[in-house]
Records
---
Amino acid sequence: MKSRFGIVISAAMVLALAAGCSSSSDGSSSSAGGSGASARPVDVGAPLPAEVKSRGKLAVGVKCDYPPFGYIDEASKNAGFEIDIAHQLASYAFGDPNALTLTCVTGSNRVSFLTSKRIDLIEATMNYTPERAQTIDFSTPYFASGVKLLVPKNSPITSFDELAGKQVISISGATASLWLTQCMKDVKQTLFAQTSQALTALNQNRGVAFAQDDTLLLDLAAKNPNLKVVGDAKADSPWGMGVRKGDAQMLAWINGALAHMQKSDFFWSEFQKTVTDTTAQQQFAKYLPRPGHNVTYPSGSTIQC
Amino acid sequence: MPAWVGPVADYLAGGLRETALLALVSIAASLLVGILLGALLTLPSKPVRAVVRAYVEIWRGLPIIIILFLIFFVLPIIGVRVNTFIAAAIGLSLWGSANVAEVVRGAVQSVPRGQAEAAAALGFSWTGRMRHVLLPQAARRALPPLIGLVVNLTQQTSLAAVIGLVDILEASQRSIERLTLSGGSTHAVPILGAVLAVFFVICLPLTMLSRWYERRLH
Amino acid sequence: MPDDSGYHFDPDFIVDHLGDLGTGLLRTLAISAIGMAGALIVGALLGAISALRVPVARQLITVYVEVFRNTPLLVQIFFLYFALPETGLQLGGFTVGWLSLLLWGGAYNVENFRAGFEAVEGGYVEACRALGFPRLAAFRHVTLPIGARIALPSVTNILISVFKNSSFMVAISYPELTETAVNIVAVTFRVFEMFLAIGIVYLGLVWLMSLGARAVEGRFAIPGGH
């Protein structure tokens, strides 16, 4: 309990000062690494769509609230496993890893961002579901997750069955919410747009559990010693990138690019940089496409009760 | 100062620039379009008034959030593509201009009728009556509510956060997001408190100006 | 609405979600009704205290009014829901919903009522006092009825704004009408139909409220006044 008022004042003062002098750098994409800025585009076996090519930048919708896959780092830059992949895509497309416009999207608006052409591509921890595949086209998969529960350390809840009739926190449009809606109709869902809102709500006991992808929950539990992950993974399914329905050119290019990354074992090497814990690496290794190891989508519904 | 304050303040400062720019653009567009439409609302021509009236009723009647969603997600589907900043500016200006038009109409019509009639009798055209007789008087009456609208528009820029513009509110949200997810405290009280303070410091002088001017009128 | 992004307009889709939207609308109406009623009462009461120049209370009211009028409602809502628990006071979505609307609308209405009361001709009150009425009685029988009528148009304007601003609760994911629509779009992706539909609902309700407000204003108009 330091003087909070003092902090407010100093923050406001720093603000006023900084507002006066800072002039360039517009938030999302900026200079970062000069590595390979002068490199040449990589032929991935399919041409880059003309519209993207003439724009000179790839527009990708990414998560900003999903560490360590897509988040905002301390320097206010997008960072994470998926962001690294996006930079790699940009360097395939233009020979420049920064020829990229990153837009923060959420589970509830990512498809709207794509269909309204604000982005070329969704790369936002999106599980494949046949329902989503009716509205957008999925690339080949590049990772996978299932739905688990984050609960307070002292919570008696150990499985999904114990949620019946209770208030459960989730994210609007997320697979976790879809699964709960279909399979546990007596659960009352409190939906938020952002992970931090859901996490704060859990800490404030606004629900008994936070249902979300195990990949995210493990990270949150590791950073919050008062929380733990429970439950068997539900609705587990691979993640794919999303392109507009029928946009065959974009789909061909992105699949070509992903195959190129698989061949060079890019996913595995980047994943090891992002997730340094070796047991977690082992746990997730099977979800990463590697030379000689393909990840495929299941047939039929991914949301099984 | 705690270590987290520096990066957050930097990020908020960038957001504040976006907020200020959005406010300036929206205020200018709202005043320009709104004053024109307000004047049109006092025209004798019924069809003109009906068209302008429909514009005013629609954009005053809709919640601004809905206007922003419509502009942001629906316009691109019918082939009009604008970036987030422009979308926010258009949405706020639609709302703002409709409200300005209503204020201007009210002010013009509050000028006693006899004056316009006298001017007409002296051979002034509609534009002449407007320019030399009605608008100068209406302007004085309209000024306090217009300043109120400027304050209102400045505050409503925070809604652009809903469509993802990194204004000061969205910057504060992302900072809280980052601090929460990295396992620390959310610091929501000081961060949101700072945002409230910034708006307060900008808006209070304007509000006081409006009130002072209103008192002087009476 | 066919175009190259593969979007097809599908009005039936709204019908499929009427139940959810109806529940959302009820929540919108509930928080709006409490917020509007509260904003009216708070405005009239504090506006009167302010106009009567009650010492200390008047200064406190000024602080309340200026803080809520000069900061964005959206940030106030965020603060009440996400920041207040850090100080030990935790409110649910419904409570934050009506409370934030009440506090915001109340602040504007204090100003509207105060201005209305102060606009009452001094001569009326003086005549009343000369007849031996105490100050409070003069306020109740003269300033209140006339001042409230003067304030009425701006007060009803704010009350309608309170209703429209109930949509701001998307910020805290309280599932009123707009948030319900956002959540349905999150699963069905039918952004066009959804926002068009709820836009029409809001417009219709605002239109009805304006009609009602005008009827009330006409009923209570001061004879001979402008």
---
Amino acid sequence: MYVAVKGGEAAIDNAHRLLAEVRRGDPAVPELTVAQIREQMRLLVDRVMTEGSLYDPDLAALALKQARGDVVEAVFLVRAYRTTLPRFGATEPLDTGGMTLARRISATFKDLPGGQVLGPTFDYTHRLVDFALEDGADPAPAAEAKPEADAAACPRVTDLLGQAGLLEPSPPDEGAPVGDLTREPVDYPADRALRLQGLARGDEGFILALGYSTQRGYGRTHPFVGEIRVGAVELEFTPEELGFPVSLGTVDLTECQMINQFHGSGAVPPQFTRGYGLVFGQGERKAMAMALVDRSLRAAELGEAVVVPAQDQEFVLAHCDSLQATGFVEHMKLPHYVDFQAELELVRRLRAEHAALAAEPVQDDPTLREAAE
Amino acid sequence: MAHTLAHGFADPVHEGQAVFRAAMDALSRPGQIRPLATTLAPPAPLIPELAALALALTDADTPVWLDAPLRAEPAVAAFLRFHTGAPLVDAPDRAAFALIADPARCPAFAAFSQGTPAYPDTSATLILAVETLSNSAGPAFAGPGIRGTAHLDAGPLPADWASRWAANHAAFPLGLDLLFVASARLAGLPRSARPVALEAMPCT
Amino acid sequence: MSPQGTVTVSAGTGYNFAYLDEGTKRMIRRAILKAIAIPGYQVPFAAREMPMPYGWGTGGVQVTAAILGAADVLKVIDQGADDTTNAVSIRRFFTATAGVATTTRTAEATVIQTRHRIPEAPLTEGQVLVYQVPIPEPLRFLEPRETETRQLHALAEYGLMHVKLYEDIARHGHIATTYAYPVEVAGRYVMDPSPTPKFDNPKMDDCPALQLFGAGREKRIYAIPPYTQVRSLDFEDHPFRVQRFDRPCALCGAEGVYLDEVILDDAGGRMFVCSDTDHCETRRADGHTGEAA
């Protein structure tokens, strides 16, 4: 007798046990600690914090350990944890102009107040595998100069250009509350603050590809890197009962200001416009790509025709979130017996009708008529 | 002068759920009278059932409008502010919820947000404390949630109530949704409820 | 902080009853009330990130979590079956976070969360059916833009959908939509019934139970109140018709139910059995048998 498939409960329990086993790997190899991941896989931790929308290096490192190094899975763990956290309010706007700089470069001016600070970067390394790292090389000698530049002497490049009216000013802070796409569903068209939130949370690979597409003719915006700065910024919060801001500590950030050509319009003289990128930790690739896409998404606001994917905010915002994308793509693993059965029935019927039509000219042939039924 | 603030839900999780479920049942089955038990003892003229719905449904995200008798008693605002955190607004058209202790003087429906064709869900919900609430008489309704027709007799209400409701339904999908509360019971009247003229019924 | 901001944590799990915090539940509950008042209209809601993936039932889970009370009896099905892995996973989630009673018996449940099926046993007035919805917008595959589809709903402009169905007829001789077959609710909104086979569409019409739909990734909630007219779109000369199986369930002998096709061997052997496992088991317990039993 046929017995219907059973045992979902036992199967899930077994799958969980197998997962724990492969997560640990060979027990003869020492187990990774969260501190090791946090310190030595820092760029991965930074990415999980950025896309997870939660600044907590230890939690991100733990999530990476639990997720076997799968970035999207780690982001998922961080987001699902974040959603349960109580909210106390919003911090004061961050002042990246006051950043304690670890790195600061501009591609638009050879020299500028505060200078170029290369800092820790892969940019000029030769990508040769360093086999000395395999067995734990001695730490490199300390850097010659302290990389931290004096914040006061390092004004943002965009502030320098802005003084001459060559660059559009930052929109004035009107004190209006900033929307939160984790608390309200996005209503299109979304304002720039919401778009930036979506891009910051968006998958690095997707944002990178979109930014790249704007450089290859799908919405050219003539970008220049006005400035990339990486460093620590103080976080301030004004508790209702105190009425003045108090420091909560610092967060590490990467900020990218892209400068783009703009021909002007009837109301606005020709000037440079901006694209903006901001991520947790050190994440220049994401910050730059985000700035390209941000500028691209301002097409409608600047009177440019919306013709390419990176200019289309519904396309970008609805598809940039790695959790939404992975969930829906991977849900195809779930059973679809019922819908497939419905399609199967239709295809069988269509095939039967097709065969019947083909059979018509020789419908006296009894074998063919039988096949068509 | 020092007040002792009246208590809120003793068990916010389960009492809030029970009150919501009663409201959900009431709104999805217009004309049915649902029991609504509560141990709240809010300051008058806020009746316990009105307070229970306010605590179950409103918070910092929902502007609330109070009618004149509720506004006249500062203890009512203090109670609602403390237990819900909802902003109390003066302009009825800004309110997501309106609490009405004197339904006979309910403002014209046009004073409240009707929603928009793209977002009809942004209209207001009115919660009215009535003295009469029964389904054995009164005007008849048909439509979603109603098997055949249902009666709902609530009062006291303004004299032009029947024409107000007819206009409210005619504007569907825009329009207001109503919850009526009385002692230990609750009924709902969503905008989808279509007034039915059975046999030239006299206005009650 | 006012009491509305407090978090009540159940002993043992570290999370609130039914996982969601009370503020989130209130937000979802308000969306449900508006959804009931505007049958078939998709109410936007701020879906939260849930501890299971988008596309795996987060919308249904949030709706269930928002309505569930301690006295509820929960049934969870996927493809009509209580024992499919995702149904098991969601049922366990609520057992762990809400401690509610669960059942596989349709008749005993007060809340039924479903993916892709409506139970065969008629639903009753005391029940709520919660659907998991992947793409709530019935016009999405005809018009990808939310800004456009929102206007089409506002204007009740559903010509696109009729054109699509008519093109099917022109090409295939009949409508080629077999699941997620669009319906008109209470004479106004065109609605996606979720990917249930169109076989189940007639069960939505004039149903005594409240039907709620949750789409987490797409952040929409919609509803069909009890006893509401739900009409599958069709044409006078091509009336709506459901799938018919030309054989009964091989296990319980039921006719007029939706069947799963089971491949038995590599020689083309196959059998058809009830997709609704509870319906099949109940019938067999009552002494009904099919040819393979």
